[in-house]
Task: structure prediction
Amino acid sequence: MFQPRKIARSGLFDLVDGHILIYVHKELELADVERRYPAEFYVMVDDKLWLLDAMKRHWGSRVTTVWPRQGHYVTDARVQTLPPPDVTLSRIGELLGWDWPRLRQAAK
Result:
């Protein structure tokens, strides 16, 4: 319920011309993402490592998973049991230092 408001307030909605998908359970909607936005390659950014793991299992080397280690999910007990993401950032702002070739190359 809060996501649409947070996205609008942050300026992201306007930045991507409204191309925003919001799902209650993203990991169950990856086929819908592919249907709406077919691509050879995806970059997924999320603060939930378990969710990035599900996306990596679904798309494999067709996705670069990016984990900004911030927020309350950093202390989630599952963090210790999951494989590492392709990219780990101390904060989301570090993503500005990454370009498309570097993100694509980071996929394992």
The CA atoms of residues 47 and 74 lie 8 Å apart. Helices lie at 3-10, 12-15, 30-36, 49-59, 100-106. The mean pLDDT is 90. Strands lie at 42-45, 63-68, 87-89.
